[in-house]
Design brief:
By secondary structure, the chain is an alpha+beta fold. The protein has an eight-stranded mixed sheet, sandwiched between helices.
Length: about 200
């Protein structure tokens, strides 16, 4: 009551209260934050990046961590682009870098193959998210909208935490769920790849 303007600046009350942090580049988001979010998740880990390639490079023993989380009952899902699709080829032309999207996707697929038989780990192909990556860790989320002519590590990045119904967090989560429903299993005929 004494300082309403100061209180409004210090305490987030509107829809932006779900925004924990903003980074101008995904590469500026600390690897320790990613590790903490992965470690602290108990129910759900969803990696809906088009390649998810950087995770295998930046997170030490990432596959081991995923196996452990799945063994503890955490649902682990990967949504990746199809390496041979027209969308992937178009995005590769747009990025114009030697380490192509299809190569990065194939690295992720090779790493996922190593943990394929762990119950609780699922993987699907999606054709609808080449320009937006969403990574969910229970009620925390990292979102990176990809910019034209830029690779993922150059994307602006938001760290969100769910605080309300139908807020930013829920809207991105709903988007990922639709992509998941419409995706196709990476491991054809494998029960771990099915819903």
């Amino acid at each position: 009551m004494l300082w309403p303007a100061a209180a409004r600046k210090a305490i987030k009350l509107g829809p932006d209260r779900e925004v924990v942090s903003v980074y101008p580049y995904r590469s500026a988001c600390p690897a320790s934050l990613w590790r903490s979010l992965i470690t602290n998740a108990t129910n759900e880990l969803t990696f809906a990046g088009y390649t998810n390639y950087f995770l295998w490079l930046e997170q030490a023993r990432f596959g081991t961590a995923l196996r452990r989380k799945a063994a503890q009952g955490c649902r682990v899902r990967f949504l990746v682009g199809e390496p041979d699709s027209a969308l992937t080829r178009a995005r590769e032309e747009d990025e114009g870098v030697p380490l192509t999207l299809s190569t990065r996707i194939r690295v992720t697929l090779a790493e996922l193959e190593k943990i394929r038989n762990q119950s609780g780990i699922e993987a699907r192909f999606s054709g609808g998210h080449a320009h937006l990556s969403v990574f969910r860790f229970d009620d925390d989320m990292i979102v990176t909208p990809l910019l034209t002519h830029r690779v993922g590590h150059d994307a602006p990045t938001l760290h969100l935490r769910r605080c309300q119904n139908d807020g930013m967090f829920d809207r991105f989560a709903s988007h990922v769920e639709e992509l998941w429903r419409n995706g196709t299993s990476v491991w054809e005929g494998d029960r771990h790849g099915q819903a």
